[in-house]
């Protein structure tokens, strides 16, 4: 898919992109040995296939445009991590919960992300089992025990320091906690500002725990405009064709706090680098300027049921829309592969408005 309006600009930009990727793959395959992935369904690659949960995507039509089919990725095709791995020239790491994730399979890292999991342990419990961020950190420690049997401490420390941790979380703390007053008390106990602060404080402790275990490069994603996803649009709390602005304002407190946290972490830990991915800005740009990215459907899902195809998410064997490359949202909660690609490209190459203070490509070269 093109990223610019004019064909000539698009061709030139894509050629430049290919040159950058070839160079990056050559350089970074040496510099970035592994990816460690933490978070939720936006970066999951199949952990929940092995859990007792309703939050699964290991059935058709998920993966309809992926050469490996329905793997547990909450997308019609590749995930954010697949693209970032491609840009870095390393394999997308396997899911931690897969029994075969051991030995040589963990040499490029491990993916711990779990759909419905959040920063707070209770978030997402309405779906059943999931790995919260705290559990994912424990799972990472399990992996470190495996590495210790494979290499010496000095080599392991160098390996971890050169690797990149990608963390995409917080979404379920809103969608499956704060914005569910019928099941969770958090919206009664905390104002939006207080809840945002609670999440950021807990998240900060989790990132410091990962830092204490040896990771030194962190790419931390903010939350996108949740008020614009099909599931929230389907609530009917906004005029037709409009996002639910109140929800977008609520997640803004978390994003502001996370960016400030990244600045503080960089001051406190000069041996490390922490970057903030401005998910809200990038996805907001796609939604506000869809034609620039060759999208023409921004307000409803490609696969789902009810208003905006967002009241129920994609069902087994449901036939999805045919114009998936022109549609921003795949199901009630998740972007299509085409929209994910735009975010991945900008996370990797973008200016400080997209990734602050540096992008993933710059991080890889440190």
UniProtKB/TrEMBL annotation:
**Is Secreted there in the keyword field?**
yes
Gene Ontology MF terms: hydrolase activity, acting on ester bonds
Iron keyword on record: no
Identify one Gene Ontology CC term for this UniProt entry.
extracellular region
The main location class comes to: secreted
**Protein family according to the UniProt entry:** Belongs to the 'GDSL' lipolytic enzyme family.
Give the UniProt subcellular location, in the record's own words: Secreted
Name of the protein described by the UniProt record: GDSL esterase/lipase
Task: Return any one Pfam family short name.
Answer: Lipase_GDSL
Leader sequence residues: 1-29
Supply one GO BP term: lipid catabolic process
Query: Which Gene3D superfamilies does this one have?
Result: SGNH hydrolase (3.40.50.1110)
Ordered alphabetically, the record's keywords are:
Hydrolase, Lipid degradation, Lipid metabolism, Secreted, Signal
What organism is this sequence from?
Answer: Phaseolus coccineus
